[in-house]
Structures are given as C-alpha cells and as structure tokens.
Amino acid sequence: MALDSKIPKGPLADKWTNHKNNINLVNPANKRLIDVIVVGTGLAGGSAAATLAELGYNVKAFCFQDSPRRAHSIAAQGGINAAKNYQGDGDSDYRLFYDTVKGGDYRSREANVYRLAEVSANIIDQCVAQGVPFAREYGGLLDNRSFGGVLVSRTFYAKGQTGQQLLLGAYSAMNRQIGRGKIKMYNRHEMLDVVVVDGKARGIIARNLVTGEIERHSAHAVVLGTGGYGNVFFLSTNAMGSNVTAAWKAHKRGAYFANPCYTQIHPTCIPVSGDHQSKLTLMSESLRNDGRIWVPKHMEDVKAIREGKLKPTEIAEENRDYYLERRYPAFGNLVPRDVASRAAKERCDAGYGVNKTGEAVYLDFASAIQRYGKEQAHVKGLNENDAALVKELGQEVIKNKYGNLFQMYEKIVDQNPYETPMMIYPAVHYTMGGIWVDYNLMTTVPGLYAIGEANFSDHGANRLGASALMQGLADGYFVLPYTIGDYLSNDIRTGPISTESPEFEEAEKNVRNRIESLINNNGTHSVDYFHKKLGKIMWNKVGMSRNAKGLSEAIEEIAALREEFWKDVKVPGEAEEFNEELAKAGRVADFLELGELFAKDALQRNESCGGHYREESVEESGEQKGEAKRDDENFKYVAAWEYKGEPKDAVLHKENLVFENIELKQRSYK
C-alpha cells in the first residue's frame, strides 16, 4: 500500500483553511444517523468525544479507568503551548511551527505541525471559556512560562497541575453530552480488538473489566485516543495502567505503526530508588525555568556527598558545574529534553552522579529564591539586604508557581526542596512514535482514526515540553471533527452497523481464545516478572543510547522472553470476574511484541535524531563534537511498519519527508 499522507496543495499557511473549505460535510440531520466509537478519554479522546457529540453524532466512549477523569492526561504538570504572543517577545504561528520542527530534529511533517501551531490559540480560548483556571498576571492577562527548546514564553499553565485542569474542562464538556444522551459512556471497559468489515473499521470488541464479559460494539468509524507506550520499559512516568494494547490491536488489523523507536526520555524525574519501584514520578519541566542543574566539579566532593559527609548547600559556587549553562549558553537549562537527558547521563557516566547509585544530578532553586526575594522586597519597599526576609519572600513566589510539585517531591524523597536542591535523573516519558495517520488523522485502515499521543504525527523524533497537551486538544477539538466528516459523508445511507456478522464473530473468538490461553496457562512466574525483564532489556539496550550490537541482542532476547512468557506465565483468578492480573497479562503480551518491533526500528535507523541516539552516529569534531548526528540523505523519512505476523517479519514502508519552508541543519542550542 502506498503511503498517501493526503497533504493539501498550496502555500503552507493556507493548507488547513483551504482543506476545510473543500472537504465534504455531513448535515446536522444526517449526523444523528451516524455512530462513532471513541476509545480513550484523555485530552484527545475526551475533547473528540465531546465535540463530535456536540456536532450531533452518536458517540460511544470507552475508558479502562473507573472515570474519564482518571485518564493519564491528568498527570501532565507544566503547561500547554500556544502562539498568543502575550509577552510581546516575538512569538508567532511560524515561530511555534519552526521550534516544533527543529525540536523534533526535522523528522515531522511540515503541514501537520503548521496546522498545530495555527489552531493552538483557539485551544486557549476554548479552555478559558470552559473555566480552566490558567495562571494570570497582575493585569489580568494569562501568564506564560518558557519551556525547553524555545526562546520565547508561550506555555500557559495552572500551577503544576495543568493537565488535570484541562482534563476537567474536557470532562465537563463530555458530561454535558452524556447528560443529553449523545455520549454513551463505558467506564471500566478495555478495547481488545478492532473489527474490520469490507475493509473499513466498523467496531470494537471490548471486555467489561468488572464482570469479565466480552462485548461487541459497532459504529461507522472508530477513533483511538489511547495514549503512548512508554510502559514497554516497565519503569516510566506513565500511569501503571497505560498500555499499547488498543494501538497494537489496530496495528495487527492493518494500521501501520510508525517510528516506534522515537521515545522521549524526560530529564527531570525523581531518580530510581530500588527494585521495589513500579513507576517513576515526573518533576515538571517548568521547574527548569527557575531551577539550575549542576553536579560538583570535583570528584572528592561527589564522594563526600554520596557518603553523607557533605551537603550540596555546603559546596561553594565556584566548585559547581552548571553543565547545561556551560555547554549550551544560548538556551542554558532550557535546552530540549533529549539534549538535557543525554547531558545528565554523560555527567553521571563520568562519575559525577550525586546519589548513592550515582544516577542523579541537582536541580537547584537557591538562585531563583534569592532573585525573586530581592525583587519582592524592592516592590514592597522592604530591606533587600535582610537575608532571612529575602529568602522568605522568594520561597513564597516559588511556592505560588510550583507549590504542588515541591510538595510532591518532599512526600516522595523526604527532603525539603526549598532548603536543599532536588535530585533528578532522566526517565522514559512520552512516545513520539505511534499509529501512522494521514493529514486527516486516518490510519491505513479506512474509518480508523488515531489522535493525540496514540498517533505519530506532530513531534518528529523529540517532543518539546508542553506540546503534548497542545496536540491532544488540537486533534480532539479542532482537527478530527472536521476531517472525520469527509469520510462519514459517505455513510449517511448506510444505516446501523450490525454486530451479527462473521467479522464480529471472528474478532470475538480471537479475544476469547487469547484470554483462555492466559487463564489456563498455569505457569510459574507472575506477569510483573516478565514485564520487569522486558523493561531491563529495553532500558539497557534500547534506552538513552543505542548501538547495533545491543539492538541486535535485544531483538533476540525479547523474542525469547515472549516465548517464555506464553509457556510460563501464571495468571490467577477467572476470566469472568474482576481480574487485574488478567488485564495486565494481555497488556504485557502486547508490549512483548511491540518491544521487538521497537528495537528493530531503532536498528534500521542508523542515525541519531532527537530521542533516538545511535552511538555510531555522533559529531566527531568542531563546535558540535559529541552531539547527535542526523543523516538526512538516508533517513529523512517516517518509518511505517506493516504487520506480517511476528515482529521480525514486519515490512517497512517509508513516507519521505519534504521540507519546503524550513532549512534542514544540524540542531544547535549553543
């Protein structure tokens, strides 16, 4: 199948407007005749379900949580980007577009990213109208932060709980439609297969997680807003329930899976404390606005800190290495996530890590507390030389900006970050890869759409901070509701889709057989035993840096682990009951397949770009020595994989990326 991205013709700035003017529409009376299934109720799925129902479609929404409010989007902390230019610092649609393409290391589609920038301002207006309590400046305008990889302030925020507040906005919009009867909500339901009838996605098979019942649900189109696959690493910042199952089932039904190796390692996470952990906690990137990242300059200081003989606050300024400010003076602590993560790893690998495992660096707010404290003392006409007063006033400012994040850190680490620097280390966070979609957000299966983190479309090889919320809401509120109509306009005479067809029967049978084989396996090891083993292979050989030898080994090891899983996994309980181990087993089985394709994708992409760092592809000399080296001549494409059985048999299709508006050059943040 040829990969047709369906990018509209014409100038970049006019593409989306012209496309909307020329696509087919469904009139309001006919929308009442059309059913749409939306799987996932985070920012992408929730906003899409609410908007489609508002337009008049009959929506069935599914989430595996007990409430849509518990979707993982709730965990996003730092903010959401939009090119409003409230600061007057030179921001524009083009600048947001440029920063996003550059931040993604020139591995995303120009047309998609420009559209994202174009609709970003609408998102803020929509959310303000819904009552989202964005932070405001003294004059009443919405406040902005800076995030990594940009030289302007464009990130709108609500303290350190932006995702939660935005999700409550989408959830309230959904609830209104549930009340009207336009959305039928299925909580505690997990999608286990897509049903394809006559080449079109016409429904799903879902499992009621409370009763274990297998259900058939039909519709004229299916939309997946099911998030990313970071939990393939076992330890990640994702909620423990986050999984790849819906996307992977779509892949096995014909949807190409694009760029699985593009995974973001977030630089500011609370370090791993031991084997007992089941997930990691993120400290928002917004903290890098005011926190300075450093390690001691001298090895004797590192040793003394690890042994508990020296406190970080006792190390003099001249004996600290603010390595991001040293290496990247133009952007300093606000370099993109991939650059910051690799720099932290490099310092820790060199032996300068500051915790007992040697895998942590400091994120220090002392300078910001001083700066803000002096400013506040000046504003209030108080003594700027009173150290205790300045500290108190500065801490109050930091508390207002980041209070809940500091509170969370103290609860987990039992250290007060107002008094001593936070310890952070990179961890798996977001996945830029996902289901391949065209400009209309449709997959290679007609009638099957993927939105938000579930698709691959907007971030290239590295996502800039605060762009996940932007993409999720752009897709759900302002893109999919237009583009899905173009497809559904052909279904106004189709009538309801029957679930009594051979295709539904076959899909349900497959789901039941797989559940039976897991329940009846009677092995000796738990699901987590295999998930942890997979995570260690992924982190050690497909993690922050990759090489051909490690990737080849990972492919073989994951295939062997998958075989062992199906022979020796033990799933207690019954199929027809609430059984979280059974649900988890199905998800880990899918991770064991995705993990191999992930490593295969990383092996074939013999270049370094964004979050994908190949040790064989590094700048050897000059100002950029040691930095990632892209290979535009051979790898300027999207790698879209077609399912052919075992992951080793997957077939690669390439969507060549064309850059007409941005000059390709090696990224520099120096």
Automatic annotation (TrEMBL):
Residues 35-469 form the FAD-dependent oxidoreductase 2 FAD-binding domain. GO terms for biological process: anaerobic respiration. Pfam families: FAD_binding_2, Succ_DH_flav_C. Its cofactor is FAD. Residues 531-669 form the Fumarate reductase/succinate dehydrogenase flavoprotein-like C-terminal domain. Residues 611-631 are annotated as: Disordered. Keywords: Cell membrane, Electron transport, FAD, Flavoprotein, Membrane, Oxidoreductase, Transport. GO terms for cellular component: plasma membrane. One of its GO terms (molecular function) is flavin adenine dinucleotide binding. Signal peptide: none annotated. Residues 612-631 have a biased composition (Basic and acidic residues). It is found in: Cell membrane. The active site is at R337 (proton acceptor). Its EC number is 1.3.5.1. It catalyses: a quinone + succinate = fumarate + a quinol. NCBIfam families: PRK07573.1 (NF005749), sdhA_Bsu (TIGR01811). Belongs to the FAD-dependent oxidoreductase 2 family. FRD/SDH subfamily. This is succinate dehydrogenase. It comes from Mangrovimonas cancribranchiae. The lineage of its organism: Bacteria, Pseudomonadati, Bacteroidota, Flavobacteriia, Flavobacteriales.
